[in-house]
Amino acid sequence: MRRLLTLTCSLSRAARRSVWSSHRSEKTVGVDLEGRKLEISTGKLARFADGCSVVQLGETSVMVTAVSKTKPSPSQFMPLVVDYRQKAAAAGRIPTNYLRREMGTSDSEILTSRLIDRSIRPLFPAGYFYDTQVLCNILAADGVNDPDVLAINGASAALGVSDIPWNGPVGAVRIGLIDGEFVVNPSRKEMNSSTLNLVVTGAPSSQVVMMEAAAENILQQDFCHAIKLGVKHTQQIIHAIQQLARELKVVKRTPQKLFTAPPEMVEYTRLLAGEKIYAVFTDFSHDKVSRDEAVNKIRLDTEEQVKEKFPQAEPFEVIEAFNVVSKDIFRNLVLTEYRRCDGRDLTSLRDISCEVDIFKPLHGSALFQRGQTQVLCTVTFDSIESSVKTDIITTALSGIKDKNFMLHYEFPPYATNEIGKMGGVNRRELGHGALAEKALRPVIPKEFPFTIRVTSEVLESNGSSSMASACGGSLALMDAGVPISSAVAGVAVGLISKPNPEKLSEIHDYRLLTDILGIEDYNGDMDFKMAGTNKGITALQADIKIPGLPLKIVMEAIQQATVAKKEILGIMNKSISKPRSSRKENGPVVENVRVPISRRARFVGPGGYNLRRLQAQTGVTISQVDEETFSVFAPTPHALHEAQEFITDICKDDQEQQLEFGAVYTATIMEIRDSGVMVKLYPNMTAVLLHNSQLDHKRIKHPSALGLEVGQQIQVKYFGRDPMDGRMRLSRKVLQSPAATVVKTLSEKQSITMGAADKETSSSS
What we know:
This protein has five domains: 27-94 and 103-248, GHMP Kinase, N-terminal domain (Ribosomal Protein S5, domain 2), CATH 3.30.230.70; 263-337, Polyribonucleotide nucleotidyltransferase, RNA-binding domain (Arc Repressor Mutant, subunit A), CATH 1.10.10; 352-493 and 550-575, Ribosomal Protein S5, domain 2; 589-652, K Homology domain, type 1 (Ribosomal Protein S8, Chain: A, domain 1); 658-764, CATH 2.40.50.140. 34% of the residues lie in helices and 27% in strands. A hairpin with a 3-residue loop joins strand 26 (664-672) and strand 27. The protein is elongated and about 110 Å long. Helix 2 (107-120) crosses helix 10 (427-440), helix 3 (147-160) packs parallel to helix 5 (220-248) and helix 10 crosses helix 11 (465-479). By secondary structure, the protein is α+β, with helices and mostly antiparallel strands. InterPro entries: ExoRNase_PH_dom1 (IPR001247), ExoRNase_PH_dom2 (IPR015847), ExoRNase_PH_dom2_sf (IPR036345), KH_dom (IPR004087), KH_dom_type_1 (IPR004088), KH_dom_type_1_sf (IPR036612), NA-bd_OB-fold (IPR012340), PNPase (IPR012162).
């Protein structure tokens, strides 16, 4: 029977694919975005997928497919997976790894996948627990138009033309600010001079679903104008996708089941546990741990009684019934009583404390505590060579080759009193770190002699650890003496809303919460994170959990976050108000060393031997600035002192000053090589190569052909140093002619005539 049912389902799915292939011919719609044409097409490629679209802007094309299972997943959340991949062929490159093929997932791919996920996830129906996969494949990249925003629109179109239940479509655009003018979907070259990088995803009726921004201290009014402009243009894309769906006569499938708790079970749970949960949420003496323990105790007792009342109920329904009641009580406390579970009013911050210079050996450190969220930030300086080098595909697509400032965010399991695996970076950690890095990057000086790494380790977490990382990172940078242009603070604003009973897509009532707790994020409708200086905004990220947010609420959230941001900056300034005038005594130093071309070969050594020995023994890093200048990076002043002594000793070459151009000297053979002989003109000289071509007028393949041996003395003529590589130029060949020549020796700084040299030669022979 099960096999028959499976076969029937397979036939049904196959039949649906057959209809899809035969009736869905290629269709294309276009959108004019301020002179830039965006094309969305479907029906030609990947026709076995539930939905597929190709979005093109300029010569950049992205294909997105969407597939959703028809059987529910055993998980208790929406099992959506979004994968965005940058193909090397699309950028006209071949991967540089040993297999010459795409391997693993880069940071930029993960961050873009998160961007797409946050744009489409809120619009799936509540309780739709069916495995769904959205794959974004860059078909071609012209190096002018970024494919990430195209992928968001492609995901929207692929879901929109499929039969997958989804309350879309959405549209996305990038807004730049160049010379005071806003630009929609700017090119890569234009973005290099833009002070704003805002990606906004809009839903129908001019609502906002997702925002992500990096800005160079943009004023609040300019930022708000950019959001409004972005939402306006997203509506054009939404209308185009809606037109495509109408032309294809899309009919959404009806899921077997939406995983929601039965109303009668919810009411029984409310009767059993409602008052107890309310008592916990109104007991302001609780902290995160004690509150969770109290609620979990009520949960266990209640679920046992619900199971007795409803013996046929599925485990998920029992759990979800309690979650619904708990969430309703929590939200109503805010909506009707204007109270929060920790006793604060809606706009108050938690208690904040700041410390700097926590550990003396570190280049910079700070501890930022906001309520029960605690973050330790450290600053480390290293050489410019330590900057992050992007892979060739990211470089080709974004133009970014390397960066000398990075922020790494770590979230160990003990931060939430849990046990978990350590090692590696998950998508959440990568996303939070990237947001905090965006917040701080605009204040980092453009020209700085070191690569800067900020490490943010979350020691306690109860909401908004990414914004705490921005605050702690700012304090640590000032403690390290980095001349940042201004302090940066960040805060998260939450939302509790009540939908319109007649039209669920509209909000009937709402409350905005400043500096949200973890439980407020979990039970709320939005996590709106914003960071900036006293002057303006440097970063923003909005995770919205409802199908759309009116612009009015977005503007209020920005204003409320701005007020809180200034208050936090005032508290931070009491700890440290400006960068230290100098870096720590034990911090790294950089010094330029001038090495004349005549000494460069000795400084570098054969095959770079001296440089490698210098770096290994002292720990410094050497990089060449120009022909005669080398930059020496030392991790400590002591290491620099050792390196200076090493360089002075290795470049000490007093006797070379006595060499005369065109004079003949007696050289001692130190080594026989296939290419020539290594010789010395005086004892403390570094041996130099006398090539086979300069040994004799005859062509020889090996010095042994001339009977030369180690320790033998030969006469060579000195022609100074090569102006290109600084190597000493010697020749024995030119002395094989009968012309009279002056011979010089360096023994005790005495000169002798050619006759004496001949006499010496004849006597030695």
